[in-house]
Write a structure and sequence with these properties.
The protein is built from two helices and 20 strands. By secondary structure, it is mainly β. The chain has a five-stranded mixed sheet with strand order 9-15-14-11-12, with no helix packed on it. The protein has a four-stranded antiparallel sheet with strand order 16-5-18-19, with no helix packed on it. Strands 8-7-10-13 form a four-stranded mixed sheet, with no helix packed on it. The termini are far apart.
């Protein structure tokens, strides 16, 4: 009886994993999802962080880029992604570049495919120590830290983006630096632009759950229906 229970558990786990796998297909006559992520009510003022190290190069204070909101209320640096999509266009996992530049992580928020190699660069004439943490419900799990003492230095790692989820990027040498990377299993994930705008293209016709994440304004999910050859318009308020 116990052997049967163990075997059943293994089979069930395998089935769940198979269901979770994203299948790449040729998307014929797909649709798209486009829209704007806006802040509800008055936008919070962006935080200004005191610079305690290298102020002669970085300045006395540094904008956190936590709340970058346009005059019309559009939220930059929000991530919009389709959750649990079973199949769709090809997901390319190549080299992804992430920079320490002008005392900031550039870009502030990045979407990267699981399986890609992350190449971390130092564009500043100072020591940076990029530290990567996987953000979990129980807290932050240490992944790796990379010391980059020289300008122009590049370090690559093919394990940071091994698992799907949110990664917090911090600099051990400069506590005012903060960035984020979303490692995703499918290619239907983007970061909003300066006006809060976004677009997901070549989406197979069907009904989906759209997840929106922002570091300061939280998360939200909305349902969206995509029709063949048409663009589904979505406005999201956080």
């Amino acid at each position: 009886m116990k052997k049967f229970q163990v075997l059943s558990t293994v089979i069930l786990a395998g089935a769940v994993m198979a269901m979770a796998q994203y299948k790449e297909i040729a998307v014929a006559n797909g649709g798209s999802i486009s829209g704007i992520v806006k802040v509800k009510g008055k936008a919070p003022a962006d935080e200004m962080k005191e610079v305690k190290k290298n102020p002669e190069q970085c300045g006395a204070k540094m904008a956190a880029q936590k709340y970058v909101v346009s005059a019309s209320g559009g939220v930059e640096y929000a991530v919009v992604m389709i959750e649990k999509i079973a199949e769709g266009k090809k997901a390319t996992a190549g080299d992804i570049f992430y920079s320490n530049e002008n005392c900031k992580f550039t870009p502030h928020v990045l979407v990267a495919p699981v399986g890609a190699t992350l190449k971390v660069r130092n564009e500043d004439d100072m020591l940076h120590n990029s530290h990567f943490y996987l953000v979990e419900t129980s807290g932050k799990k240490n992944l790796i830290n990379m010391a980059l003492p020289k300008k122009g230095q590049v370090i690559e790692n093919n394990k940071i983006l091994r698992k799907e989820g949110l990664i917090s990027v911090e600099c051990d040498a400069h506590d005012f630096m903060q960035g984020y990377i979303w490692a995703v299993q499918n290619p239907y994930a983007v970061v909003t632009g300066s006006n809060g705008d976004f677009k997901l293209s070549d989406v197979p016709a069907g009904s989906y759950t759209l997840k929106i994440w922002h570091e300061g304004l939280g998360e939200k999910t909305v349902s969206v229906k995509v029709e063949a050859g048409k663009d589904a318009k979505v406005t999201v308020e956080l």
